Amino acid sequence: MQLIDTHVHLNFDLFQPDLATVRSRWQEAGVVRLVHSCVHPEEFASIQAIAAQFPELSFAVGLHPLDAVKWHQQTAEKIKFLAGSDAKVVAIGEMGLDFYKANNYEQQIMVFEEQLAIASELNLPVIIHCRDAAVAMKEVLQKWRNSQGERVRGVMHCWGGTPEETQWFLDLGFYISFSGTVTFNKAKSIQASAAMVSSDRLLIETDCPFLAPVPKRGEKRNEPAYVRYVAEQVAKLRGETVETIAHQTTKNACQLFGLSL
Hints:
9 helices; 42% helix; alpha/beta; single chain
């Protein structure tokens, strides 16, 4: 059984002492490819160094919405340059809107739209972070489609929306990725969303080192091997086998990010 973890942050300090061992565990769990997200272009070199160590790792470059205050025109040029500098860059992101931790709404939207333009210019998919901002996110993406005459390709990562909100982004052409939150007992809305996503738009991730899934929730550090628990929970919610979920989500990840096995 092959799995793809479509959202990791392995460049964080808490992985540095034993990253080789962490890799051994994800290999044992059947994780054959990973996509490393990026919260700021300044991370690029550290992510690139990890990708050079591990051929199964591809990555993105972008600016997280909670760092929108750090945006300037040179940031756009830097993202474009870096995205074209390494063949292992498969997406722009993570980018998006976070109205849970910040209220600089207009600035976040501006930075988000700037990165949509970069992704469109480079013909790359986007990795979208959306927290407490689904209505605004839908409006921005619909506006983009109407003005540009094209859909944005990408994924709503670590999705936490309601089934109604989930359908908005399915209708806009997005993949929906579920993390360890789908295993949490009280996450009924997320679980309902996981059950209704069409199989050709479904992805899984860990968002490690955050959000360790049940039965590892008490651990301080999530890791890619635990994406198997996400796959098992999604399979249970959908009344499917974990092998079916693994096959379909792996196929979907390869299609969205242009990965090969």
